[in-house]
Specification:
Blueprint (H helix, E strand, L loop, with lengths): L1 H28 L9 H27 L1 H58 L2 E3 L4 E8 L4 H20 L10 E2 L2 H11 L4 E8 L3 E2 L5 E9 L2 E3 L4 E7 L6 H21 L7 E3 L3 H11 L4 E8 L3 E2 L4 E10 L1
Parallel strand pairs: 3-6, 9-12
Antiparallel strand pairs: 1-5, 2-4, 4-6, 7-11, 8-10, 10-12
């Protein structure tokens, strides 16, 4: 069927083409004009229209006699267009995900470059201070002489850092470099009242023998973190926990929870100090009463503020 249709279209085109050419020639000779055009241009237009007529007849016959052509033209093409549009919509989230991945890769590259830079510094010399390391901690209470008190803290920090970086140099000099707006911001905040802690931190890695250390401040409110006698955290010891392995595990978990809690309150102390032989006390209590549940508590032994040590004891109580 397809071959017959193709042969028919070729013959039809061959028959209509000479007719169009002949028609155009006769119109040219008759000097016929359309829309006041020159006869030659009129003949050209007639020839073009004839060619379009041939194409229209060809497509019409294809639609009329070929079911496959109708299927492709009226069903497959709209379906493909719809599929293409849906594919474009589905591609948008993928493009966004690609952008996120590219941003993540760029950030990782920056981190890698920073790490390479740090490694070069370590290889280049003896690093005595690391970036972000706290170099000095000072306490300041707002008063009329706040600027003088701050100057004393800066000088003390200078002398302390110089002993680390240039220990052989006896002459006292200003080794710390600050941004001027950092100092003005400290003076502005602390002059508004209150009790404050100033952490002076290194802005870069520092090698032994460097003449200057770039620093930046971190200002914290000096507040009470725990009070004497306060139960900071507690844990229940069930009957199934009353063996030494589980007890040790429970104690470690409890101390970790305690560290996290004091940190969340604003303490900058990294470890807590325990007093008393609480392990022996707990074991002795359990030996006497194996069939009971117990309350294990971490109790503060003193009032402690932001930078002060947290000193605790563990107390065990039998539950009824």
């Amino acid at each position: 069927m397809a071959w017959i249709l193709i042969v028919f279209l070729i013959l039809l085109g061959g028959l209509i083409a000479p007719f169009g050419d002949l028609l155009g020639t006769k119109i040219g000779k008759a000097r016929f004009s359309i829309l006041k055009l020159r006869p030659k241009k009129t003949a050209t237009i007639v020839t073009v229209i004839t060619g379009g007529f041939i194409s229209a007849i060809s497509i019409g016959l294809l639609i009329l006699v070929s079911e496959e052509f109708r299927q492709r033209l009226f069903v497959d093409i709209p379906f493909l267009q719809k599929t293409l549009d849906e594919s474009k919509k589905a591609l948008l989230p993928l493009q966004e995900e690609r952008k996120r991945l590219e941003d993540k890769i760029n950030n990782k590259e920056k981190e890698l470059n920073k790490l390479k830079s740090d490694v070069k510094e370590f290889r280049r010399g003896n690093v005595v201070i690391k970036r972000g390391q706290t170099l000095f901690i000072g306490q300041v209470i707002s008063n009329q002489n706040i600027k003088s008190d701050l100057a004393k803290i800066y000088n003390s920090a200078d002398r302390f850092v110089q002993k680390i970086v240039i220990p052989s140099k006896k002459e006292i000099k200003n080794i710390l470099l600050w941004r001027s707006n950092d100092i003005s911001e400290i003076e502005k905040v602390t002059s508004n009242g209150g009790n404050w802690i100033i952490l002076i931190k290194a802005a870069t890695n520092v090698l032994k023998g460097d003449n200057f250390v770039f620093v930046y401040p971190e200002l914290l409110k000096n507040k009470t973190i725990v009070k004497r006698g306060e139960v900071i955290t507690n844990e229940i010891l069930e009957k199934k926990d009353l063996d030494f392995e589980n007890i040790n595990s429970k104690i470690n978990i409890l101390l970790k929870k305690t560290r996290n809690k004091i940190k969340s309150r604003g303490s900058i102390v990294k470890e807590i100090t325990t007093k008393g032989d609480f392990i022996k006390k707990i074991r002795d209590s359990i030996k006497v009463n194996q069939n009971n549940k117990y309350l294990l508590e971490v109790i503060s032994l003193r009032d402690s503020k932001t930078v002060e040590a947290i000193i605790v004891e563990l107390n065990i109580t039998k539950l009824q």
